[in-house]
Write a structure and sequence with these properties.
CATH class of the largest domain: Mainly Alpha
CATH topology of the largest domain: Helix Hairpins
Structural class: alpha+beta
Pfam family, one: DnaJ_C
CATH superfamily of the largest domain: DnaJ domain
Number of domains: 3
Organism: viral metagenome
GO molecular function, one term: zinc ion binding
Helix content: 10-25%
Number of strands: 15
Keywords: Metal-binding, Repeat, Zinc, Zinc-finger
Radius of gyration: 36 Å
Number of helices: 8
Domain J: 4-69
Length: 353
């Protein structure tokens, strides 16, 4: 005796009603025709799993099917279940809320979850400097956002602003819900009645608004972005919420330093003589000057890094700073071969090994 309906729903013959329901919802989501428009067999597969669910989700027809098997059940005049009321079917599957059983992937016109009615986020680049990180930021910046003209963009009367319409098709014991984009508004939910004399959008349907927002970042901030809620993509209707603006920070090159976490890398070139006898240098460190003589490090080794502690960038939310890392490069002179003996003697007298 074969029982292919269990195979169709990818459950075993001992599966509970809950297991059958979970599997059906998963398979319906995968094989829904709206999600598989490029697959000609998707609709047939969807009908197949829907029919299997209609039989196995009903305890009475399930028991009868388990007893008779595929062939005898299909030949029996009472083999198929009565057509359920649509509200009863929604309640059985989705906890009493009449909603699209396939959730957000297909656009739910009856129910919106936490952020499903939020418009898209907008990303913009914003240049920052090492001085911004060192001192923190507290400044007003201009943000231009595009808004939809409510005078020229009205709610589509055919889909009531949902952007989708539904058709109910009878297929044996089941009714299939086919959801398609509204042709009247091309899925936008908005009917355009643009007027070139409109004082807001001049007939474009959108207009730009300049906003002033306060950008505040603490000293030593290490995040690469900040978010301004509500300044992203703007709603087309009253049922939508505005998206957010994500301000992506781009660090500009600095004339003296290279950022390495909270440390600053400073590069300086010495002559060979300076690397041996030392040189006084002044480093412009934001709002102060650091004065050092390289002979405090001894003879400079160009492959070594030299550290000045607590002269890097602030560490956010602390009173500490990173370090300054000095990397020296050395310019070597051309050697006069005639002076080698004299130079050798001088160096031997000058150095202690």
């Amino acid at each position: 005796m074969t029982r292919n309906l269990y195979k169709i729903l990818e459950v075993d013959e001992n599966a509970s009603i809950d297991d059958i329901k979970k599997s059906y919802k998963k398979l319906a989501l995968i094989h829904h025709p709206d999600k598989n428009k490029d697959k000609p067999d998707a609709e047939a597969k969807f009908k197949e799993i829907s029919n299997a669910y209609s039989i196995l989700s009903n305890p009475e027809t399930k028991e009868k099917y388990d007893h008779l098997g595929d062939e005898r059940f299909n030949n029996d005049s009472g083999g198929g279940p009565d057509m359920p009321n649509m509200d009863d079917l929604f309640q059985h599957l989705f906890g009493g809320r009449r909603a699209n059983p396939f959730g957000n992937p297909f656009g739910n016109p009856f129910e919106q979850h936490d952020n499903s009615n939020q418009c898209g986020h907008v990303m913009k680049s914003y240049n920052i400097t090492l001085e911004d990180i060192y001192n923190g930021i507290n400044k007003n910046i201009k943000i231009n956002i595009k808004k939809y003209c409510k005078k020229c963009n009205t709610t589509c009367s055919k889909c009531n602003g949902l952007g989708v319409v539904q058709q109910f098709m009878q297929m044996g014991p089941m009714t299939q819900i086919i959801q398609t984009n509204c042709h009247n508004c091309e899925g936008s939910g908005i009917a355009n009645k643009r007027n070139s004399k409109c004082d807001e959008c001049k007939g474009n349907g959108v207009y730009e608004v300049e906003n002033i927002v306060n950008l505040i970042m603490p000293k030593g901030f290490d995040t690469n972005h900040t978010v301004f809620n509500g300044y992203g993509e703007q709603p087309k209707n009253n049922k939508q919420k505005p998206g957010n603006l994500i301000l992506q920070f781009t660090l500009c090159d600095h004339k003296l330093f290279i950022k390495n976490g909270n440390d600053l890398i400073y590069k300086y070139t010495l002559t060979l003589t300076e690397s041996i006898v030392g040189k006084s240098i002044v480093i412009e460190y934001f709002d102060e000057q650091i004065k050092i003589n390289t002979n405090q490090f001894g003879i400079i080794n160009p492959s070594k890094q030299y550290i000045i502690k607590n002269r890097g960038l602030p560490i956010a939310n602390t009173n500490k700073k990173g370090n300054m890392i000095i990397e020296f490069s050395i310019t070597y002179p051309k050697l006069n071969n005639e002076s080698i003996p004299e130079l050798t003697e001088m160096l031997n007298k000058s150095f202690v090994y």
